[in-house]
Amino acid sequence: MKVAVVKERRAFERRVAASPDTVKRMLGMGLEVVAESGAGEGACLTDAAFAAAGASILPDAATALVDADIVLKVQRPLIGDEDASDELSHLKRGAVLIGLLQPLRHSAAVEAYARAGIIAFAIELLPRITRAQAMDALSSQANLAGYKAALEAADEFGRAFPMMMTAAGTIKAARVLVMGAGVAGLQAIATARRLGAIVSATDVRAAAKEQVESLGAAFVTIDEATLRSAETAEGYAREMDEDFQRRQRAKITEVLRRTDVVICTALIPGRKAPVLLTETMVAALAEGSVIVDLAVDAGGNVEGSRAGEVVTTPNGVKIIGHVNMPSRIAVDASQLYARNLLNFLTLLVDKGGTLKIDTTDEIVRATLLTENGAVVNPALSSVMTEAQATTG
Length: 392
Ligand code: NAD
Known about the structure:
The protein is α/β, with parallel strands linked by helices. The chain has 14 helices and 17 strands.
């Protein structure tokens, strides 16, 4: 069976879905690997490194994809007239596609996979169970995004993060507030602490308090009773009601009076990100303050943030809206993502190197989007109805 790895063509994407290390391991699993020339360029992985690991290098995406049985991607493939290159059209019927396909936000693309007869897997739908941890690309990428968010904030901030006592005077430590203490937020806390900042953090899940405090940061509690019911069985946050949001904003407004840097990481799976900092709250920050909106791709946690831009507000606050933060640390992000996909692949390929899709496995079932021309994922039931209607 042939596995294909191609260059990612979407804007702001430098990562690649395989590494020389995972190529070697795939060969060890009895698979053949082809890579488009330049596939790893954005992540400092050369064609020579892929070739040395045993991959065949092909001149373009079409040649690499055309007879591939399994296609490894970071971003969902380009479809139809989205761009000059229609990646999906190169995939053969029955090919397996694995990537961060964002099926809840891009249901039309899921229908297109079904119509093209693709067996598509969305890696972000992995259940958060112990067995799936080594495949958990959301966590591996969010961890690096949180680290990078703290560095980007430090870079834009006109002051230092640590307290410094010098002969010329003392510099005060920066005060950082992290909003959303999941995987990205916890790494942002740890990184800001390592840089010497005084860090506090908030979250709607009660479980976050202990994790925040274990990193040496102060937890800002909005309402303990509400926090206890804010976590879903899957470990994610629920969307909070208007009353909670009002109280959260009042409490955070107080904290902002003694905050220099805010790193926002709050997400709700399949939904628009919650607005945590309103325009009024941003306007209350001192000149020179910095905000990172890590949720900018999902609608944004901060009013006034703009995807792909660093905005300076009239009161001199910088709002960093970098799109796709993991891609800004593409070398490590690619290595970890490639490992996540390799571990996932071991579920789909048997010892003889042949494809075996076992839908009794809960990880396979949760991530499988389309099979035999239909949308089969229960999380996409409304999409399923539409796709079946159009395919007859
Ligand atoms: P996420 O990316 O969906 O959200 C980021 C954070 O934003 C979460 O902590 C969430 O509670 C928070 N948030 C949402 N709405 C908010 C609001 N209005 N105000 C403040 N904060 C808000 O979540 P994530 O980082 O992917 O993970 C969430 C949890 O799952 C974490 O506790 C993590 O440790 C856990 N997890 C478990 C496993 C596993 O067991 N295998 C794997 C990964 C993560």
